[in-house]
Specification:
heterodimer; A: about 750 residues; alpha+beta; globular; B: alpha+beta; Ubiquitin-like (UB roll); 2 domains; five-stranded mixed β-sheet; 5 strands
Chain lengths: ~750, ~160
């Protein structure tokens, strides 16, 4: 695809929802209220693992002001059935148990009951009156311990999948997966250098600033209205329908503005409870999680152990690569072990690859998707190991990656063969960047790492309407989590040839537009963007028809250009062009309202690649890491609104920096989380960081009319190893365990000291 | 227990409300006065989403009891635009794409305005430390800091 010039695409206009979001007018999850609403609250388990012997709710129900109490008895049992949700998969049997514990509580703060009362204080008092008798069971938090013989078993029915012969005993290992290419043993036999290391990562929370919130209103005729802060209101509808046996069309979910999600708002926690409480009480029920509940009972991304072995020739050509990942799923099976495995070596063209993964349950909250789920974890292992290889071979780390880079035609270990991708271009842009060409300052060190994400297409619906004055509304069904209204409106304006401010984007509820898959997988600008483009094209077909009718010519005699219908062929010069406004004004006489629609299952998401560069210093005494300069380079396909594309790269990089340096879940011996707040779970703040430089490499995706690739997820993949690689070069100490927080890094520096002194 | 009657000034307008002794000003603003532009992200003073000013001093609404508003002046995000004119910071945040999801934005704007009132010529480092009490998980802070720097420069030029 040759580089095109566009009028609107690639420009940086104000976002359509900008004024609402800087004035406090925009309404987020907790900002919706209804007259007569009740406050809903959840009673949560004090134990990490216990059998529920009995629940007595009678005293709570008798408290004046309490209007409904629900426990697992209020939710029907679900079949053992796996359904997709965003980039993850969930089992309905497990989902119903995660939203409300049944036989057992499986993690601290697992929901056991919920109440709806007239005030917050009464709801809290009611929770204290619910008597739950538990038989406390031994628990297991750590992934390696959970895999060992004799570990406390979470689910008596869980037999490891993917192992032959099929085991007969229950285990915490839910699944073993593997994928391979070539002959791994022959590959390592051929290698002249082999590097092997083991790594760990800790679970991290998505850390969206807006806690989960919902408002449910069930009416006497069975209709349900729901407002929810979610990345997928169609998924909320689907889960509520399944978990409560309500027909889909009886439920109308309106997505509120969403205060961050990063994958963590693709599942349900509160919504089914709020609906059930509303059904039982006959009143609207509002539920909002506290930050404490968000940390203890939602998200997080998994922690894992990663073993990587890479064999190469002395010239840097990698001939064999082996990786084994064991990943925490939380209390129920379903970690992102698949994508962690598939992405591990996806950046590289390697003849012999083997990847093995284990999905392991333990007494922690069930993990949820987090930006490129799984990929940062395997990249932490692989990209750190590559850096050791580069040091061993005395090669520039970018040159090592260029030598092995995947290109168009490279077959991945997990199956697909790449079409047009931009990894080589991204590496070259990184290498020629001002940052990489600059001299490393004294006392600093430089680190580099790469990352990959597939990106996603899937189901999208959109509609385009022309108003009577010729202005246009485009209607889609994906919550706007970071500026997607702007990118959709830009594509519609480009397609129609009218001004951006003549196009208003609207996000419709589940009853007002056809099905849309979640805002996730970096799919909205790509897939929903394609649905918008197609809906506009459908509308243009109609507009041309109206012009043809006005002129009394065949539709082939009309073209659409710059927002006007113009005569074509033999008609040129015979008729004056008709503008969108003119055609809209006469629509009543030419066939009625002018609209367009599109519905697609979008394939051909273009994979994305990123390369990050950091310069940093490590304080020898405090082990505090100071970042001096950071650059994120990425193949973004076409940057529809470059400011928001840059923002994705910057935000993803900083989340990765937090993952690398500070963020972790800290459990005590009783299996209770000890840092369930932003003071002790420390996400990056402004004073931790420099500006984050970005370089947008544009290698258009050939399957999209404007070359769009997903951009949101890739930038969280490289930072973990980028930081570790720089720290290794700064200190001479290779960190293999995350986070590289001052206590851990300090201990590692101290441990290395006697050796360094002896050398 | 009987409710307390509080008279205060919110965004320049006289305001009265009844509150429990334990209620925070954040709860009163959001749940009683309908001023939902001030957000709750943590309830413990760690995220800054509920940033407001009390007699021009920047505070977390979740850490202040509502009763303490008696006789004081409170400014929230809803008072930042004047008529149909956005404040320079509001305009620049939009222009620079300094928000993605927007939940932290009211807090950042209130905090940034307080900074510029206190220090019209902040360095990048001073901006970063002033805003270190406001968490943003989307942007990596780059565009927020740039927007504040640019507004500070513009404001200095117009007052010169």
């Amino acid at each position: 695809m040759s580089k095109q010039t566009y009028k609107w695409i690639g420009t940086r206009p104000d976002r359509p929802d900008g004024a609402d979001k800087v004035t406090g007018r925009a309404r987020f999850g907790a900002d919706f209220n209804m007259p007569g609403q009740l406050v809903g609250k959840v009673l949560r388990s004090p134990h990490a693992h216990a059998r529920i012997r009995s629940i007595d709710t009678s005293a709570a129900e008798a408290l004046p002001g309490v209007k409904a109490v629900v426990t697992s008895k209020d939710f029907p049992e679900q079949a053992n059935l796996i359904v997709p949700t965003g980039e993850m998969q969930v089992n309905l049997r497990d989902v119903t148990r995660n939203v409300m514990a049944r036989e057992k509580v499986l993690y601290e703060s697992h929901a056991v009951a919920a109440v709806a009362a007239t005030t917050d204080a009464i709801a809290s008092a009611a929770l204290a009156l619910i008597k739950v008798e538990y038989d406390v069971l031994p628990h297991v938090i750590d992934v390696t311990e959970a895999m060992q013989e004799g570990a406390p078993i979470l689910h008596d029915h869980l037999i490891t999948d993917g192992v032959e012969p099929r085991p007969t005993k229950a285990s915490n290992i839910a699944k073993r997966i593997d994928n391979a290419k070539g002959d791994i043993d022959a590959g390592f036999a051929e290698a002249e250098v082999v590097i092997e290391r083991s790594y760990t990562t800790q679970p991290v929370h998505q850390g969206y600033i807006e806690p989960h919130a919902t408002l449910a209103s069930a009416s006497e005729d069975g209709q349900i209205q729901l407002w929810s802060t979610t990345q997928g209101h169609f998924q909320v509808r689907g889960f509520c329908s399944r978990l409560l046996n309500i027909e889909l069309s009886q439920i109308r979910v309106t997505p509120t503005e969403i205060g961050g999600g990063f994958g963590g708002k693709t599942v349900v926690y509160l919504e089914p409870l709020a609906v059930r409480l509303s059904q039982k009480s006959g009143k609207p029920v509002k539920m909002v999680m506290s930050r404490d509940e968000v940390f203890r009972a939602s998200g997080p991304a998994p922690g894992a152990t990663v073993r990587v072995k890479i064999g190469a020739k002395r010239d840097g050509r990698i001939v064999a690569a082996d990786c084994t990942i064991a990943m925490q799923a939380g209390a129920f099976p379903g970690s992102p072990i698949g994508p962690a495995c598939w992405t591990s070596f996806a950046c590289y063209d390697i003849a012999n690859v083997r990847v093995v993964g284990y999905d392991v349950v333990s007494n922690r909250p069930k993990v949820a998707a987090y930006r490129a789920p799984g990929a940062p974890i395997s990249a932490w292992g692989v990209e750190s190991t590559l850096d050791i290889l580069a040091q061993e071979l005395r090669m520039d780390p970018i040159d090592l990656r260029l030598k092995n880079a995947a290109k168009k035609g490279t077959k991945t270990s997990y199956g697909p063969t790449f079409d047009t991708i931009g990894f080589v271009e991204t590496l070259e842009a990184a290498k020629s960047s001002a940052h990489y060409r600059s001299k490393v300052k004294p006392g600093m060190a430089r680190g580099v790492a790469a990352g990959f994400w597939f990106n996603v297409g899937a189901d999208s619906s959109a509609a385009a309407h022309v108003a009577e004055d010729g202005t246009v509304t485009i209607i889609s069904g994906n919550p706007d989590i970071g500026g997607s209204r702007a990118s959709l409106a830009l594509m519609a304006a480009e397609e129609l040839g009218i001004d951006y401010d003549k196009v208003r984007p609207v996000i419709a509820d589940t009853s007002s537009i056809g099905f849309n898959f979640v805002t996730g997988g970096s799919r909205v600008t790509f897939a929903t963007g394609l649905a918008v483009v197609n809906s506009v094209r459908d509308m243009v077909r109609e507009l041309k028809g109206r012009a043809a009718k006005t002129w009394g010519v065949d539709v082939e005699g009309v073209i659409w250009e710059n927002g006007q219908a113009k005569p074509a062929g033999s008609n040129v010069g015979v008729f004056e062009p008709l503008t969108l406004a003119q055609l809209a004004a006469t629509a009543g006489k030419t066939g009625g309202p002018i609209n367009g629609h599109a519905q697609l299952n979008v394939q051909g998401a273009g994979p994305g690649f990123g390369v990050h560069i950091v310069d940093l210093a490590v304080d020898q005494e405090t082990a505090i890491v100071t970042i001096d300069r950071y650059t994120a380079v990425q193949d973004v396909g076409t940057a529809i609104h470059p400011s928001y594309v840059e923002g994705q790269l910057q935000g993803g990089a900083v989340q990765g920096i937090g993952w690398a340096l500070n963020e972790e879940y800290i459990y005590n011996a009783k299996g209770k989380l000890e840092n369930a707040g932003f003071l002790d779970y420390r996400i990056p703040v402004a004073s931790d960081l420099p500006m984050i430089e970005t370089i947008l490499v544009e290698v258009p995706n050939p399957t999209h009319p404007y070359g769009v690739r997903g951009v949101g997820e890739v930038p969280i993949v490289p930072p973990l190893a980028t930081m570790g690689n720089a720290i290794a070069r700064a200190t001479g100490v290779r960190m293999t365990d995350l986070p590289m927080s001052p206590p851990r890094l300090s201990a590692a520096l101290d441990a290395a000291m006697p050796r360094a002194a002896a050398e | 227990m009987a409710k307390l009657h509080v008279s205060t000034t919110i965004n320049g307008e006289p305001a009265e409300f009844l509150c429990d002794v334990s209620q925070t000003i954040l709860d009163v603003l959001r749940d009683q006065l309908g001023l939902t532009g001030t957000k709750e992200g943590c309830g413990s003073g760690d995220c800054g989403a509920c940033s407001i000013t009390l007699d021009d001093r920047l505070i977390c609404g979740c850490l202040m009891l509502a009763a303490e508003a008696e006789g004081r002046r409170i400014e929230t995000i809803e008072g930042m635009a004047k008529g149909d004119r956005l404040h320079a910071l509001q305009k620049k945040f939009i222009e620079f794409a300094a928000l993605q999801c927007g939940i932290c934005t009211p807090g950042f704007l209130v905090a940034s305005r307080a900074l510029l009132a206190h220090n019209p010529d902040p360095s990048e480092t001073e901006i970063r430390y002033w805003l270190a009490g406001n968490l943003c998980r989307c942007t990596g802070y780059d565009k927020i800091v740039r927007a504040v720097m640019e507004v500070a420069r513009d404001m200095r030029e117009t007052t010169r």
